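Below is a filled-in request sheet from our internal design queue. Each sheet records the structural input a requester submitted and the sequence that came back. We keep these sheets so that new team members can see what a complete request looks like end to end.

REQUESTER: design group, bay 2
PRIORITY: normal
MODE: inverse folding
CHAIN LENGTH: 113
BACKBONE (tokenized):
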């Protein structure tokens, strides 16, 4: 799981950070630390946990959460969350394959000849 480069557009330039693919444990921890269903708190917790510079050093510490909450516009937080969760942008159409969780079993009924 190699670190991936992420870039998010800011009003005054680009914000670049590196992160390894998000694990289920990281997601659960960020949700717990966010304390509820607040997407902004979740995104900021996740950003503090996973954002690294090119050398792998953390960009933020938990003590900076209040400052980040006051400094980052809501739209940027949304963009950061999409980048961290590897979500597809809304303007890109992605063909999704529908998978039936129950495989179809051959019918046991026999038809009369």
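RETURNED SEQUENCE:
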């Amino acid at each position: 799981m190699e670190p991936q480069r992420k870039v998010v557009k800011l009003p005054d330039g680009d914000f670049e950070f590196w992160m390894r693919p998000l694990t289920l444990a990281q997601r659960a921890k960020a949700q717990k630390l966010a304390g509820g269903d607040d997407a902004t708190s979740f995104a900021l917790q996740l950003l503090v946990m996973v954002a690294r510079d090119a050398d792998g050093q953390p960009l933020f510490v938990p003590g900076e959460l209040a400052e980040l909450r006051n400094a980052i516009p809501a739209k940027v937080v949304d963009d950061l969350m999409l980048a961290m969760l590897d979500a597809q942008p809304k303007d890109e159409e992605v063909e999704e394959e529908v998978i039936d969780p129950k495989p179809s079993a051959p019918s046991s009924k026999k038809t009369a000849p």
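SHEET NOTES:
- The two ends are 58 Å apart (CA to CA).
- The longest strand covers residues 4-10.
FILED BY: M.R.
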